C-alpha cells in the first residue's frame, strides 16, 4: 500500500496592458505536485499549461503520483478536489465517444490506461483543504510554488489503447475539451472575427462589446418570457444593427414614397437622422426626463454592489454626473446617447464607472448593461413611440398604405443591378454629394452592405488589386480568429467581440481589444 498527497494550483491572470497580449504566450500559472505520505522528501512538482482549470491541475497531480506507483500495488491518494475524485471514479467502461466528450479527456484517458496496465488498485480520499492536515499543507505549498521548478508537464498524445486510437489536435495541441463544442466555438469565432471587421463596426471609439452582449442576453432565448420582452429584444437588435426605420433609412429604402420625409414631430424641416433625435426641439424637454429616470433606475444597483462609503442617492447622483454629464445638453450625455442609440457603450466609460463606484469587472458589466437598458426603455417610450405615431399620421396624410411599403421584387432587381454596376460610381457620387453639401439620399439611393464591392467591368490590373484586397482581408480575419482560439486555449481569455455567451461571463476573463 502506497499513500500519496496530491494538489494542484491555478492562478488566473488578468491582462495588465490591455490590447498588448501576445496570443502565443501563456499568462495563466498552473502547477501540480504530489508527496508520499509522511515522507516530505519524496515529492515532485511540475508546471502545466493549456486548458486552464483547477480540476485539470488536480488531475495532473494524481497522474504524476500514479506514474511513480509500483505494479500491482494498492494506492491511496489524498486530494482536496471532490470533482477530480468524481471524474476518475466515473471513467470505467466509458466508450471512446463518451471519453472524448468531456473536458481533460486526454489526462483522464492516461490515468485510466495507467491503472489498467500497472494493475493498480486506486482509492481516492477527499481531505478538507486548509484544515491543519500537515501533509496537505506541504503539498499545497509545492503546487503553488512551481514557478522555480523547471519541470513542465507536456500532455501529448503519445500512447493509446483499444478504445481510443487517435486524438483530435488543434495546432499540435490535443483538444481536451468537448470536441463538438470546440468546433462550434471555432466556427463562431471565425464568424465573429469576420463580423468585427465590417466597416459598420469600425468605430474610432473602442466599444465595450461585453456590455452589449449582456444586454442582448437578458432578453434572448429562455430569458424571453413575454411578448413585451420579445418586442424589446427586437428593438434592441434594430438599434444595434442600425435598422431602425428612421427618416434617413426610409428615404434609402423607399425613395419614391419618402422623398420629402422630414422630421414629423417638429416643424424644423430637417432630415431625420439619428443625430436629429438629440437636437430636435420636440425632444428638448424629454431628454432631461430620460436622464433622470435612468439615474433613478440604477441607484439601487449601485447601492447594492458599490464599495462607496457614502452611498446616499444624492452622493450617487453626483458621481453619475461623471458618466452621464451634468446636463442633458452636455457633451458627455450626447456622446453616451449617440452610442447608446446603437446599443453600445464606450470602453473608457466602462473604466470610469468601474473606478468611480469600485465595482468588480463582472458587476460593472451588469451595471452598465442595466444603464443601457434603462436608456433604451425610456427612449423608446418617450421619444420613439410618439415619433412613430407622428410618422403614421404623416403617411396617412399622403395616403400611403401598407401595400405601398411592402417590398416588390423589382426593387431587389434594381438593387442587385446597382450593386454590380454602380458600386464605384456611387462612391464618387457620395463624395461629390458631400462637396455640394447635398444629402446623399437625394442624390442617389446608395445601399452598401459591406466594404467589398465587386467591380465586374473594370480593367485587369484593378481586378487583381481587388483580389489581393480580398485575400488580405481573408488572411487578417483568419489570423484574428486564430489568435482568439490560442488565447482561449492557453488562458481562457475572450476578446469581447468574440464573446457572446455572456452567461458565463463571471468565470472568464475578458481581454478588451481595440478592433482593427
Ligand atoms: Zn425634429
UniProtKB/TrEMBL annotation:
GO terms for molecular function: nucleic acid binding; RNA-DNA hybrid ribonuclease activity. PROSITE patterns: RNASE_H_1. It holds the Pfam family RNase_H. Gene3D superfamilies: Ribonuclease H-like superfamily/Ribonuclease H. Residues 1-148 form the RNase H type-1 domain. This is RNase H type-1 domain-containing protein. It comes from Rhizophagus irregularis (strain DAOM 197198w) (Glomus intraradices).
Amino acid at each position: 500500500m502506497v499513500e500519496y498527497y496530491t494538489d494542484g494550483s491555478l492562478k488566473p491572470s488578468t491582462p495588465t496592458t490591455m490590447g498588448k497580449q501576445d496570443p502565443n504566450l501563456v499568462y495563466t500559472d498552473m502547477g501540480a505536485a504530489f508527496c508520499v505520505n509522511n515522507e516530505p522528501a519524496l515529492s515532485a512538482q511540475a508546471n502545466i499549461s493549456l486548458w486552464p482549470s483547477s480540476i485539470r491541475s488536480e488531475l495532473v497531480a494524481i497522474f504524476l503520483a500514479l506514474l511513480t506507483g509500483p505494479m500491482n500495488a494498492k494506492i491511496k491518494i489524498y486530494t482536496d478536489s471532490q470533482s477530480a475524485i468524481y471524474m476518475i471514479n466515473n471513467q470505467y467502461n466509458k466508450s471512446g465517444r463518451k471519453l472524448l466528450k468531456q473536458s481533460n479527456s486526454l489526462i483522464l484517458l492516461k490515468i485510466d490506461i495507467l491503472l489498467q496496465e500497472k494493475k493498480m488498485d486506486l482509492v481516492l480520499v477527499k481531505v478538507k483543504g486548509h484544515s491543519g492536515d500537515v501533509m496537505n499543507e506541504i503539498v499545497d505549498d509545492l503546487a503553488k510554488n512551481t514557478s522555480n521548478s523547471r519541470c513542465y508537464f507536456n500532455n501529448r498524445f503519445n500512447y493509446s489503447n483499444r478504445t481510443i486510437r487517435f486524438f483530435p489536435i488543434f495546432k499540435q495541441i490535443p483538444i481536451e475539451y468537448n470536441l463538438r463544442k470546440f468546433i462550434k466555438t471555432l466556427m463562431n469565432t471565425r464568424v465573429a472575427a469576420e463580423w468585427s471587421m465590417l466597416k459598420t463596426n469600425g468605430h474610432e471609439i473602442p466599444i465595450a462589446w461585453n456590455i452589449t452582449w449582456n444586454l442582448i442576453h437578458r432578453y434572448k432565448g429562455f430569458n424571453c418570457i413575454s411578448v413585451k420582452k420579445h418586442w424589446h429584444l427586437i428593438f434592441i437588435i434594430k438599434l444595434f444593427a442600425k435598422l431602425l426605420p428612421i427618416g434617413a433609412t426610409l428615404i434609402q429604402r423607399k425613395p419614391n414614397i419618402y422623398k420629402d420625409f422630414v422630421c414629423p414631430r417638429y416643424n424644423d424641416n430637417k432630415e431625420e437622422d439619428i443625430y436629429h433625435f438629440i437636437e430636435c426641439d420636440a425632444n428638448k424637454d424629454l431628454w432631461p426626463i430620460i436622464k433622470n429616470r435612468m439615474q433613478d433606475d440604477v441607484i439601487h444597483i449601485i447601492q447594492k454592489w458599490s464599495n462607496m462609503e457614502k452611498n446616499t442617492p444624492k452622493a450617487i447622483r453626483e458621481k453619475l454626473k461623471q458618466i452621464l454629464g451634468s446636463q442633458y445638453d452636455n457633451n458627455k450625455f450626447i456622446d453616451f446617447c449617440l452610442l447608446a442609440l446603437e446599443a453600445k457603450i464606450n470602453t473608457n466609460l466602462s473604466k470610469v464607472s468601474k473606478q468611480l463606484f469600485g465595482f468588480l469587472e463582472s458587476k460593472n458589466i451588469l451595471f452598465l448593461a442595466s444603464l443601457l437598458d434603462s436608456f433604451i426603455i425610456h427612449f423608446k417610450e418617450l421619444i420613439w413611440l410618439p415619433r412613430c405615431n407622428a410618422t403614421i399620421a404623416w403617411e396617412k396624410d399622403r395616403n400611403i398604405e401598407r401595400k405601398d411599403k411592402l417590398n416588390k421584387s423589382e426593387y431587389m432587381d434594381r438593387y442587385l443591378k446597382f450593386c454590380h454596376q454602380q458600386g464605384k460610381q456611387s462612391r464618387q457620387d457620395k463624395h461629390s454629394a458631400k462637396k455640394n453639401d447635398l444629402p446623399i439620399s437625394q442624390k442617389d439611393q446608395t445601399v452598401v452592405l459591406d466594404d467589398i464591392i465587386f467591380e465586374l467591368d473594370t480593367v485587369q490590373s484593378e481586378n487583381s488589386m481587388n483580389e489581393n484586397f480580398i485575400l488580405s482581408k481573408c488572411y487578417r480575419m483568419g489570423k484574428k480568429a486564430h489568435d482568439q482560439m490560442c488565447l482561449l486555449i492557453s488562458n481562457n481569455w475572450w476578446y469581447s467581440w468574440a464573446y457572446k455567451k455572456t452567461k458565463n461571463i463571471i468565470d472568464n476573463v475578458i481581454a478588451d481589444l481595440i478592433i482593427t
